[in-house]
């Protein structure tokens, strides 16, 4: 059958002549085989194209979803960072209040550290480089749960402080808790190089730089035990709040009080000046406990 000869006649219309073609059986079979293969190939290619087109759409949609998830995770990490900073600020405020009213300090653990997270305060730096989105989301949810627990514990601690404050208002009124003057903090309670001798010495208070004549206010209730001139501090004031706590104000321009006068929190003491050993107008502010200088920033709440 494949090797038999077949004749193909082609007639031309209106001319009456024809052409004769002889074909072997295998040639006809090959023609139909190639035609079938082409049809099958076209069907396969069309199916492949349709599948590829669907996959391309799915991939595009998945990439868009992943991008949206990354944006949401970044936004969430920024909110978590803000929450962590707020909690740290509340804990710091809690510590200051406890010190002022003589409550036992509590060891407040960093929620990030308690969950095995990074030590850095910036949550996004520690977590965002992780490419496994599921793991990242899980860690964020754990962190938020820990923050929620810390917030509830902080609420309990604040209630304890409020109760203590209600029973010890007299002590609170006599504890310096506000800035004595407005200005810029230019020198801390720390070691520094003396601007006069060039030697390393300990600065016993903080320096608040302000224009000459800036008002200085009492940070708490007390009694003026000294208001005069000192060789180093210039015009200075010493305010005694209780038997163990005193505050000192140095380099004043002039006084607004007299020795022996009782003052309340927010009452005017004097004005910023440049008297004594001073390189410019500023207030040198000290807090002393039993005569020993301590860091004034531990007491300032505002």
Characterise this structure:
With 302 residues, the protein is α+β, with helices and mostly antiparallel strands. It has five helices and 14 strands. Strands 3, 6, 7, 8, 9, 10, 11, 12, 13 and 14 form a ten-stranded antiparallel beta sheet that branches. A hairpin with a 3-residue loop joins β8 (222-230) and β9 (234-240).
Keywords:
302 residues; alpha+beta; Glucose Permease (Domain IIA); 3 domains; two-stranded antiparallel sheet
List the SSEs and their pairings:
Elements: E1 5-11, E2 18-24, H1 25-100, H2 111-114, H3 123-127, H4 133-167, H5 169-173, E3 184-187, E4 191-193, E5 200-202, E6 206-209, E7 215-217, E8 222-230, E9 234-240, E10 245-255, E11 262-263, E12 268-272, E13 282-289, E14 292-294
Antiparallel strand pairs: 1-2, 3-6, 4-5, 6-13, 7-12, 8-9, 8-11, 9-10, 10-12, 10-13, 13-14
Please summarize what this structure is.
This protein has 302 residues and is of the alpha+beta class.
Low-confidence parts: 111-130
Mean pLDDT over the residues: 81
Radius of gyration: 42 Å
Strand content: 25-35%
In DSSP terms (H or I, runs of 4 or more residues), the helix count works out at: 5
Taking the sheet with the most strands, its summary is: 10 strands, antiparallel
Q: Please state the overall shape, judged from the principal axes of the Cα atoms.
A: rod-shaped
| CATH homologous superfamily annotation of the largest domain | Glucose Permease (Domain IIA)
Q: Note the run of SSEs as H and E.
A: EEHHHHHEEEEEEEEEEEE
Helix content: 40-55%
**Helix-strand category:** alpha+beta
Distance between the termini: 107 Å
